[in-house]
Design goal:
The protein is of the alpha/beta class and 508 residues long. It is 39% helix and 21% strand. Helix 2 (53-72) packs across helix 8, helix 3 packs antiparallel against helix 5 and helix 5 runs parallel beside helix 6 (167-178).
Length: 508
């Protein structure tokens, strides 16, 4: 029997705690909230502390107390601890995977991929502890040495979402640590257990007390973290509306802020594309994680010459996708995260059908009976004959809904893809290398795929988007180090006299 089934059968609800200064502690409020399985709301995953601003104050104080010693720890030594963390994550992958599926709903294979992303991120970033490259350069004056290096930012506040409960926290946490920062994480309120599993692994790896802290709860601790005077940086992943509020608050206090927000991503299917491959990729992109990815393929822009054939094949396969509890290995599409999300998605389906007057090709219903009655399930939904400018074509739905849009020329398709306020991910299916390279040049997104879906980032490449998707920063790759470190230019003058740069003339 799995741990999830054992927990439900025992009818015992486990309590979890905040992690502050190396201790697992209750919230100052003394209050708790329940984390439930979105596939079966009678299954309570655990009770978690409902944190307040006071808890954030304590966590930030712990991070501040630990900051100097951690900053002075040599980067290769910090990296050794992080490598041990990767080993711990790998050893516990199966348990973390099942617990993630139970609290978030994504199918087991996807949850395993989420944990693997954290493992990959940890191994990759640990390697940066022996690099963290600056550079040397020639100085303007004789007998003078010039170079630059990275230095940590300070205390970092990390605010993470529900859809990648371990991968996204790791994208923020591990680079912050290797750069020498201390952190306070505000876990996603729908998925606190996965963050706690990551932090427990940090504790086991030997990361010193106070370096990593976690508070659980809702809006209050998040807002307190953003507002705290001792927090130098906020890294946020979530909705564009919330990100804008955070950016404004950080601007008032001159904080560094890194935002990863929404997307309205599109796949272009050219008339020369391998249609079967394009259909498979589009199904994965549209309905993987029940469409709850910022990179989800929520628009399929299909050439008129193959439009009918593509729609028929795509709808046929979408209808056959098995919806159910993600803990069932046969499930292909799990639940959405909560009632609020379900209501929002169903409202957009109504907009597509009634306001936009698009063709509902399949799906469109909430599943509420039988095995579905205690969960948040929605049929994979496909709208066809969608026109540019419709709300379902422009606005982020964040659910198992995709819109198919016809086009006549590649330039028209590119205009459609670029014609939204977001710019995260795009893709093109074609056998023509010229069209492929032209599209990658003209699509104004932070990520672009050829003959693949819009989802599936790799940790050694930069991740992020343009326009309303973010504020120019990139997570993953070495580029993430520019978020969690600041540059210091160093000049060493060994001439034995005052030399005035830009003033003294150098004799030749």
């Amino acid at each position: 029997m799995s741990k999830a089934k054992e927990a439900k059968k025992s009818n015992k609800t486990e309590k979890y705690y905040n992690y502050i200064g190396g201790e697992w502690v209750k919230s100052a409020s003394g209050e708790w909230f329940e984390n439930v399985n979105p596939a079966d709301t009678t299954d309570i995953v655990g009770r978690f502390p409902k944190s307040t601003a006071e808890d954030v104050d304590q966590a930030v104080a712990a991070a501040k107390s630990a900051a100097t010693k951690w900053r002075r720890t040599p980067a290769p030594k910090r990296a050794e601890i992080l490598f041990r963390l990767g080993e711990i994550l790998r050893a516990n992958k199966e348990r973390y995977t099942e617990e993630m599926t139970r609290e978030m709903g994504k199918v087991l294979k996807e949850a395993g991929g989420d944990v693997q992303e954290a493992i990959d991120c940890t191994y990759y970033t640990a390697g940066e502890g022996r690099r963290l490259h600056g550079f040397t350069t020639k100085a303007e004056m004789p007998n003078k040495y010039a170079m630059c290096e990275r230095q940590p930012v300070g205390i970092c506040g990390l605010i993470t979402p529900f859809n990648f409960p371990m991968a996204i926290p790791s994208w923020k946490l591990i680079p912050a640590l290797v750069c020498g920062n201390t952190v306070v994480i505000k876990s996603g309120e729908d998925v606190p257990l996965s963050t706690i599993n990551l932090v427990k692994a940090c504790e086991e790896a030997g990361i010193p007390k106070g370096v990593v802290n976690v508070v659980n709860g809702f809006a209050e601790p998040g807002a307190a973290l953003v507002d705290h005077d001792d927090v130098r940086l906020i890294s946020f992943t979530g909705s564009t509306d919330t990100g804008r509020i955070i950016a404004e608050a950080c601007a008032r206090k001159n904080k560094i802020v890194s935002l990863e927000m929404g997307g309205k991503n599109a796949i272009i299917v050219m008339d020369d594309a391998d249609i079967d491959n394009a259909v498979e990729g589009s199904l994965w992109g549209a309905f993987g994680t029940s469409g709850q990815r910022c990179t989800a393929s929520s628009r399929l822009v299909v050439h008129k010459k193959v439009y009918k054939k593509f729609v028929e094949k795509f709808v046929e396969k979408a209808k056959k996708l098995k919806v159910g509890n993600g803990l069932d290995p046969k499930t292909e599409v799990g639940p959405v995260i909560n009632r609020q999300a379900m209501d929002k998605i169903m409202n957009y389906i109504a907009i597509g059908r009634d306001e936009d007057k698009a063709t509902l090709a399949c799906g469109g219903n909430a599943l509420t009976k039988g095995a579905y009655k205690h969960g948040y399930f929605i049929e994979p939904t496909v709208f066809a004959d969608v026109k540019q400018g419709m709300r379902i074509e422009q606005e982020e739905i964040f659910g198992p809904v995709t819109a198919i849009i016809p086009f006549a020329t590649l330039d028209e398709a590119i205009e459609i893809v670029n014609g939204v306020k977001y710019g995260l991910s795009s893709a093109i299916y074609t056998q023509d290398v010229n069209q492929a390279f032209y599209a990658t040049q003209e699509l104004y997104t932070g990520i672009c795929y050829v003959n693949s879906a819009t989802i599936g980032a790799e940790v050694h490449l930069p991740f992020g988007g343009t326009k309303g998707t973010g504020n120019g920063h990139r997570e993953a790759g070495t580029q993430v180090l520019d978020i969690f470190s600041e540059w210091k230019a160093i000049y060493v003058d060994y001439s034995g006299k005052l030399q005035k740069a830009q003033i003294d003339e150098v004799e030749i």
